[in-house]
Design brief:
This protein has about 130 residues and is of the alpha+beta class. It is built from five helices and five strands. The protein has a five-stranded antiparallel sheet with strand order 2-1-3-4-5.
Length: about 130
Amino acid sequence: MADKEKLRIDKYLWSIRLFKTRSQAATACDSGKVKWNGNTVKAAKNVVVGEEYEVKTEAKRWVIKVTGLLPNRVAYSEAVKYYIDITPAEELERIQFQAASFHTGKRPSKIGRPTKKQRRDLDDFFTE
């Protein structure tokens, strides 16, 4: 890519797949969830290779370093080549902890309600 090429931050965040849509990326910029050097950035800010951005998504708080400009959305395996994830270890641990405490509603195996076989065994036990 040539140095003269310009790429907006909202389009860049969409193309590296941090946001599902470009409008979500633009909204995140406008609502202060994207920061550069501690300051919030507008969606129209041009991305420069080597800059670091703090991006807060629903899933986690990212810290990324731009390694290349990607104007079009590509597969995830290609997109990860255009940034380096330098998210602090504390944030990754917080996400791990949240994932461990997240309850899906599905009961763990062999805990709680008895199976049909166990109920039959109990019925046989109480009727004897």
